[in-house]
Structure formats: C-alpha cells, structure tokens
Design a protein that fits this description.
The protein is α/β, with parallel strands linked by helices and 422 residues long. Helix content is 34%, strand content 14%.
C-alpha cells in the first residue's frame, strides 16, 4: 500500500493514478493477459476516454510530460489511459504478438475498467495496433488517432531494420547472461540512436544471475526475424476503418514517407480521402533522427500538436461521418437511399449520437420519471380536465432517440397541470 501511495500523485492541473505496479507475469493463456497503465483524470466530469498506446518497447509513462504540460488542453475534453500493451512495460507477457490477440487484450481491459466507448490513439507500432483494434471492434471506438504510424508495411524501411539490430543486441545480452555493467556498456556502444538507447536502458532491470528487460525481448526478437513480423507488417486481412481518424507524421519522417507511405492511409481510412493537410497532415520541420517522437519535439511544435489533437477531439471525434463536425449534430438531416425530393421529410434522418458510456451512465435515468408524468396525464384525463393530455401521453415511451421530444411533452404537461407537479 505504501508503494502504491507513493506511485499516486495529484496536482491542481492533472490527477494521475498509476496502475503500473508489480512485475509482468508470463501467461500461457492469451485470454488471461492483463494490461496495466496510468490513468489521467480529465478536468471535467463525465468525459469520454482516450486510450493511448506507445511505440514498441517504450514505456507508456514517457507520454506523461506531453499530457501534463500546462498548455495541453486535451484533458479538458478527455480522460486518458496511458496503456502498456502485452510484452511491453508493466503488462503481462505472452509468446504471441498477433495484432488480433493484442486487440482482444485492450477490449478486456476496457471491459474491466467499464469503458463502453473510447478514442484510441497510438504512436509508431502503437498506431498499427490501435488501427487493428478499432477495426475489430467498430462499436467500441469513436475515432482513431495516429502519430507516426499506421497501416504501413515497414519490413524494409531503414529505421525498422536499425531497430531490428537493436533488438538483437538486447536479446544477445540476455542469452549471454550479461551483468548490469556490461549490458549498459554494450547498449551504449552498439545502439547509436539516442532515443532508442534510452528506451532500452529504461527497460533494463536486475534479473537472477544477470540482467533482464521489463519488455519481453525474447518474444519481440523472435517476431522481428519472421518473414512477416507482426511488429512491422500490414496485411489486407486487417480490413478498414470507416469512422473518424486523424493521422499525423513528421514532415521529414523516416517511418512515413510523404511521397508513397500516405497512399495506404486512403485505402484503410476512406474518411481521409481529400482530407490531406486537415486530418492527415505532416507536422514540424525537424530533420533529425528524433523526429519520430513528434510529441517530444520543441515546445512550439508540441504546443501546436496538442492543440490540433484537442480541436479534433472536441469537434471531429465521435461525430457521425455524414456530418462536417459536432456542430451539425441534431441540426442537419442526412438523405438516405430512398430520398424523394417530392415528399417532404421522407427519406431523411438525423444521425444518431449516444452517450460515450451508455452501458454504465446514469444520464438516461430521467426515463424512469417519465412513467410518473404519464400517470399524471392519465389521471387528469380520468378527471375530465382535458383530452389534449391523452394525445401527448400516448407518445411518451422509453426510446432514447426521442429524448428531446419527451422533454417537450413533459414541459407541456407541466404548463397544463402545474398543480400536479408541485
């Protein structure tokens, strides 16, 4: 309990609760893999949830400075779960890195935390996993947010081949039972990339008879040497995501080449077509090898990125794809296939929007009181006070889509029979 309390911090800006306590457990049964992460509570009540997945091997806690920055407004509109997926961080280990299995882990985690729907975001490999998870569970996600990653086959990209060599360095250290001092020296000498060197050092822990890594290096290495490694490949079998999406990559990225690698995005995300520079756009002008971590750039670039994400979350995420943004919700009719301009109002509908946590929210509890208003109306009818109430009371049901109409009915009944509502 003392350790748990020490790992829980509170501030006037962000409430942080860490659930990354304990040692990862190796699970033989894929369905028993448990994920762990850090919860950032938003600044308002009853906010939707944003699930964030990091780059492969990277501890998700590295995202904390980005979200806790005082100029970052994302927590004004979202609660945030910084989540370690299997074989990384503090989450459980399993030999498989199949994206379908990993997406099932995320859904189980959401069920445990009672998150009905969420926005899912990912960086690097996390973006690939976020895409597959959303595709496999269309009803659970309102939008997909991608940073420097997505439906791209990276098997022959130079940065992935470099990472593949770095993974082998770590695997050899475990295989040779290297000491902590030797491991740090080898990582320092054989991993020239500044950021990746730091990530591997963050994973180092003292093991029995030598060093160990918090991430499951053995499973990740065995996957990386496959012909079609799960951490780098993209397959048509994964399908497409028809909903809202925002994809951002560095202008001079080595992982997402603007001239060619943006093409797969249009095939997997139909909503991105004709949206280049708005929902699919290059960010910053950093030409260094660190530009892959766009959320850790210069203060000016990070401020601009966080504001773009904030605006997308506020106005685009969760809005029906037939609408421009949330400002049109409830105001615009959308023509369907049976639309006939000669018949007024036929063949049109207002896109439905539901509460982000409709399975657990109490927002719809008002319907339990509507039966009371119905009884009042019928009692007045029996007393012969009015027949108008009969017309309106018969329309009162429990269909959430007619919520606003019911409120107007209740208002009418209140005006007609004020003494009944005293």
């Amino acid at each position: 309990l003392k350790k748990a309390f020490q790992k829980t911090s509170f501030s006037k800006v962000v409430s942080v609760r860490s659930f990354s306590i304990g040692t990862p457990i190796f699970q033989k049964d894929s369905s028993k893999v448990q994920l762990r992460g850090t919860f950032l509570k938003g600044r308002k009540a009853d906010l939707p949830t944003l699930v964030v997945l990091p780059e492969i091997l990277e501890p998700v806690g590295n995202f904390l400075p980005f979200f806790k920055h005082p100029d970052n407004k994302i927590l004004d509109v979202r609660n945030v779960w910084l989540l370690d997926y299997r074989n990384c961080g503090n989450s459980d280990h399993h030999p498989s890195l199949d994206l379908h299995d990993m997406s099932e882990d995320i859904i189980r985690f959401m069920n445990e935390k009672k998150v009905t729907m969420a926005t899912i975001a990912g960086h690097g490999f996390g973006a690939k996993l976020a895409t597959v998870t959303a595709i496999n569970n269309l009803e659970r996600f309102t939008g997909v947010l991608l940073l420097e990653g997505g439906p791209v086959d990276h098997r022959y990209h130079e940065p992935f081949l470099q990472l593949k060599n770095y993974i082998k360095v770590a695997y050899d250290l475990i295989k040779n039972n290297a000491s902590s001092q030797k491991a740090n020296k080898e990582i320092q000498n054989q991993i020239p990339h500044k950021k990746w060197r730091k990530v591997f050092q963050q994973n180092l822990i003292e093991g029995i008879g030598g060093i160990a890594f918090r991430a499951n290096i053995e499973a990740i290495y065995k996957d990386s040497v496959k012909v079609f490694p799960d951490i780098a490949s993209w397959h048509e079998k994964y399908g497409l995501w028809p909903g809202r999406v925002m994809a951002c990559f560095a202008l001079y990225s080595d992982w997402i080449l603007m001239g060619s690698n943006t093409i797969p995005f249009y095939s997997i995300f139909p909503h991105l077509q004709y949206e280049f520079s708005r929902d699919l756009y290059p960010h910053g002008d950093d030409k260094s090898e660190l530009n892959h971590w766009i959320h850790e750039g210069t203060p000016e670039d990070v401020f601009y990125l966080s504001n773009r994400i904030y605006r997308w979350l506020r106005w685009q995420d969760g809005a029906n794809v037939h609408l421009s943004d949330k400002s049109e919700a409830g105001w615009y009719y959308v023509p369907d296939r049976g639309f006939d301009p000669q018949r007024q109002g036929v063949g049109e509908y207002i896109p439905e929007h539901v509460h982000h946590d409709y399975l657990h929210t109490t927002a719809y509890d008002v319907f339990s009181h509507l039966t009371i208003y119905r009884r009042v109306a019928f009692r007045k009818i029996l007393q012969g006070r009015t027949l108008v109430a009969s017309k309106y009371s018969s329309q009162i049901g429990k269909n959430p889509i007619q919520f606003l109409s019911y409120l107007r009915i209740v208002e009418f009944l209140h005006q007609q029979f004020p003494d009944a509502f005293s």
